[in-house]
Design goal:
InterPro entries: DUF2254_membrane (IPR018723). By secondary structure, the chain is of the alpha/beta class. The chain is built from 15 helices and 8 strands. The protein is about 65% helix and about 10% strand.
Length: about 425
């Protein structure tokens, strides 16, 4: 049984390693290069195995000239693109927030472009070597010519897309949109299935517990494997942590109905890493957006407009459940329960730092009140109540920070208009 937990742990970590944008940056070009090599070998194999009918005799010099153009231009373009990409990542890290860099790295257009340029360069080099060695007959040369024209057409299309991407890569609006897209995906998954198809009510009397032996952030729980363990050992678990939670040495991860001798087997089902990940963590993208807003409000930047923009994006993400009807998801893991998500995590950790940095800025303070007013109408009653309660707190902090009597009066009037007669429907 110890091996089951161990392999579940290592398999998930390998999957996460493969999905990590930092690894995809080089893995995607590597796979594209392999594809180019496979295509050239396939042409050679077909050429030597099957007599290829062709109606046009291809001049080898013409094909060589095209391959020369691809090889020389793609090497330059790939080098230039890599330089631009690295500069964009550095710009995001230093001017926006380091946490956003990984999300920018995950941009598929960037990965596809770099992969295409490098693969095309190597394709052209290997094809020229093959032609020089005379390994292709006229039929193989004909196939190689057709494939080269297809590669050329694909490169033209990719270059056009790449030019469009270069104009926005690393810019604030583009970065925020990427974070917004990922955050919406995660929060929709959360609203549709907040408890991961687990039992909502506790299953044990909390007599026995499992303590963490690591420190970091919980990135994933292997629910299926843990439930299989329960079935084999007639056990039940009440999980009291969720992905995204900070875990310290000795933190209680779960309670169980029976004594577990091999606790290491259970610990393998809880994946703890040094940094937070957005997988199964609906709060992470919002925290990154909050960091961007904080930076915009810092004295060195002093850009309240960007902070207001970020606040609006946060409110749009949190209201993604407006079209999701509450349902009773199927219980797939009947031996596991999980603690409910604390809706305050969507309010205080996100808006609190922005309120702190928005002192004396009447525009940001007013916008924060307006967005909290929209959140108090959210169909999730707990989130709505948290938003309304924090609106009062933020109003009191904002009123104290404002020094001009006219600004205080305006701020008070707007708050009263938004919240005086508002009720959650």
């Amino acid at each position: 049984m110890l091996l089951r937990g161990y392999f579940a742990n290592k398999t998930y970590k390998l999957k996460m390693w493969l999905d990590d944008p930092e690894n995809k940056i080089w893995m995607t070009p590597f796979l594209a290069i392999l594809l180019a090599i496979v295509l050239l070998i396939t042409i050679w194999y077909v050429d030597t195995s099957v007599k290829i009918p062709h109606s046009i005799s291809i001049n080898v010099d013409t094909l060589n000239a095209i391959l020369d153009i691809i090889a020389s231009s793609m090497l330059a373009v790939a080098t230039f693109s890599l330089g631009i990409m690295v500069s964009a990542f550095a710009s995001v890290s230093s001017n926006i927030t380091p946490r956003a860099t990984v999300i920018v790295m995950s941009d598929k257009t960037t990965q596809k472009a770099i992969s295409s340029f490098l693969a095309s360069f190597l394709y052209a080099v290997i094809a020229k070597i093959a032609l020089g060695q005379g390994i292709y007959t006229q039929g193989g040369i004909y196939l190689l010519f057709i494939l080269t024209l297809l590669v050329l057409a694909y490169l033209v299309f990719t270059l056009i897309s790449w030019v469009k991407t270069l104009s926005t890569l690393g810019r604030l609006n583009n970065t925020v949109k990427k974070i917004e897209t990922i955050s919406k995906e995660e929060i929709i998954k959360f609203w549709e299935n907040p408890n991961f198809n687990l039992v909502e009510e506790p299953l044990t009397e909390h007599r026995y517990h499992i303590l963490s032996s690591e420190i970091g952030y919980l990135s994933n729980i292997q629910f299926k494997e843990l439930n299989n363990y329960c079935e084999d050992h007639h056990a039940k678990f009440d999980i009291i942590v969720r992905p995204g939670d900070f875990i310290g040495y000795g933190t209680i991860l779960c309670y169980t109905n029976r004594y577990i001798e091999n606790k290491a087997d259970i610990l393998n089902f809880f994946i703890i890493e040094a940094t937070q990940k957005h997988n199964d963590n609906p709060n992470y993208g919002l925290l990154i957006l909050s960091e961007i807003g904080q930076r915009a409000l810092s004295p060195a930047v002093n850009d309240p407009g960007s902070a207001i923009y970020v606040l609006t994006v946060i409110a749009n993400i949190l209201n993604e459940n407006k079209d999701i009807k509450p349902s009773n998801p199927t219980i797939e893991h009947k031996n596991l329960s999980i603690v409910p998500y604390d809706m305050n995590n969507f309010i205080l950790p996100i808006h609190g730092p922005l309120l702190r940095d928005a002192q004396n800025n009447i525009e940001v303070l007013i916008h924060l009140q307006r967005l909290l007013a929209t959140l108090q109408k959210n169909q999730n009653e707990t989130l709505a109540k948290s938003a309304k309660a924090y609106a009062k707190i933020s109003f009191e902090h904002g009123e104290k920070s404002l020094t001009q009597a006219e600004e205080k009066k305006r701020f008070t009037q707007i708050h009263e208009t938004l919240f005086k007669a508002s009720t959650h429907s």
